[in-house]
Amino acid sequence: MAVEWSQRLPKRYAEATVASLADNFSALADWDWPQGKGPLIHGPLGIGKSYCAAAIARQKFHAYHVAFVSVTSWLEDRRQSMNGAEIVRPELEKARLVILDDLGRERPSSWTVEQLFKLIDDLYVAEKQLIVTTNKQPLELAGHVGDAGFDRLKELTTCMRVEGESRR
Ligand SMILES: Nc1ncnc2c1ncn2[C@@H]1O[C@H](COP(=O)(O)OP(=O)(O)O)[C@@H](O)[C@H]1O
Ligand SMILES: [Mg+2]
């Protein structure tokens, strides 16, 4: 059975497989969700973090709904619908696993911090499984999601540093 994408996977990652992950991603290829925690994959640009998140979801979340959330696009959508719409939209509600892709790429403002805190808090209380990708150092993320958001991220994820050369 295929993964159900409640938030579409970008075409670029549509065929991602765990088997094709390079050695620098081996700890992620074998990820077994210790205490239910997902990986917070951090490392330089272009090494394959988003690809890896997609591969894990495609191959380890068969028969579940998964949402691939580009944080930048999500914030853009929020900005355009400033009508107090719910943060966790139906697509996210259905998802068992949520991928927050490229967290910390946005330039933080009090508005983005508040939005991202609320998003993470909603995912936290709904007990979603989470994969985060970022090219920030984990500690820097506190400046993007607030101290309370960062605290929740620490409970939901385990930091995994990946080094390597950009594939782009
Ligand atoms: N294991 C892999 N096999 C084939 N292509 C890959 C692999 N990992 C990454 N890529 C490709 O390399 C490019 C950069 O990967 P991406 O995941 O977007 O990097 P990052 O998220 O770390 O910036 C993308 O085009 C992606 O599809
Ligand atoms: Mg990426």
Describe this protein's structure.
The chain has 168 residues and is an alpha/beta fold. It has a single domain, classed as 3-Layer(aba) Sandwich (Rossmann fold), CATH 3.40.50.300. It has six helices and six strands; from the N terminus they run E-H-E-H-E-H-H-E-H-E-H-E. A six-stranded parallel β-sheet has the order 1-3-4-5-2-6. It is globular, with a radius of gyration of 15 Å. Bound molecules: adenosine-5'-diphosphate and magnesium ion (MG). Magnesium ion binds at residues 49-50, 101-102, 133.
User: N-to-C SSE series?
Assistant: EHEHEHHEHEHE
Which architecture does the CATH hierarchy give at level 2? 3-Layer(aba) Sandwich
Main beta sheet: 6 strands, parallel
Report the principal-axis shape.
globular
Major beta sheet, strand line-up: 1-3-4-5-2-6
Q: How many strand segments?
A: 6
Instruction: Briefly note the CATH topology name.
Output: Rossmann fold
The small-molecule ligands in this entry are: adenosine-5'-diphosphate, magnesium ion
Instruction: Point out poorly predicted stretches.
Output: none
* Relative helix content: 25-40%
CATH superfamily, called what? P-loop containing nucleotide triphosphate hydrolases
CATH class, please? Answer: Alpha Beta
Rg (CA only): 15 Å
From the N-terminal CA to the C-terminal CA, the straight-line distance is: 32 Å
Q: Supply the number of helical segments.
A: 6
Task: Report mean pLDDT, rounded to a whole number.
Answer: 92
Write down the domain tally.
Answer: 1
